[in-house]
Design a protein that fits this description.
The chain is of the alpha/beta class. The chain is built from four helices and four strands. Strand 3, helix 2 and strand 4 form a beta-alpha-beta unit. The model has no long low-confidence stretch (mean pLDDT 89).
């Protein structure tokens, strides 16, 4: 079991734990394999069924983990991020997964894909280029470096 991203926000005496799974298949190809049930079959057969099964399992594992480790948190938010997903049945399946997960676990579930993903990364890039502090997060540090290199080249 592994969680891609965990973030903790503490504001006004409330603690919110954010958990994200990130699918970075640049060509939009979802997970492959053979489905173990028919639960997600209405969303494109085997092609998307396996992806939805794997995501459901990942988020169930994530929920179990973060509610155990952060058992005193006030709120849990789960997010699915992906750069490139095809419109249609897979996105419809993600909507159903979101609805089922929120109902089962009484917590927020966000889907950040395609244009929403690009917008969020763009905002992160903009923020990163305004900072010079050396962060230990490699991805953010890389965005900082790229942003500052562009500024230097523009001068």
């Amino acid at each position: 079991m592994e969680v891609d991203v965990i973030g903790v926000a503490s504001e006004d005496g409330r603690q919110t734990v954010y958990t994200a799974e990130v699918l970075t298949h640049l060509d939009g190809t979802p997970y492959s394999g053979t489905p173990s049930s028919d639960r997600w079959s209405e969303f494109g057969g085997d092609k998307y069924q396996v992806t939805l099964e794997k995501l459901w399992e990942k988020f169930e594992d994530d929920h179990k983990y973060v509610t155990n480790v952060f058992d005193d948190a006030d709120e849990y938010v789960f997010e699915f991020w992906s750069t490139t997903l095809p419109d249609g049945m897979l996105l419809d399946g993600l909507d159903q997964l979101k609805e089922d997960f929120e109902k089962k676990y009484d917590c927020e579930f966000r889907v950040v894909v395609n244009e929403k993903y690009a917008k969020q990364i763009g905002e992160l890039q903009t923020r990163a280029k305004t900072e010079t502090k050396g962060y230990s997060t490699p991805a953010y540090r890389f965005l900082q470096i790229l942003g500052h290199m562009r500024e230097d080249q523009e001068r």
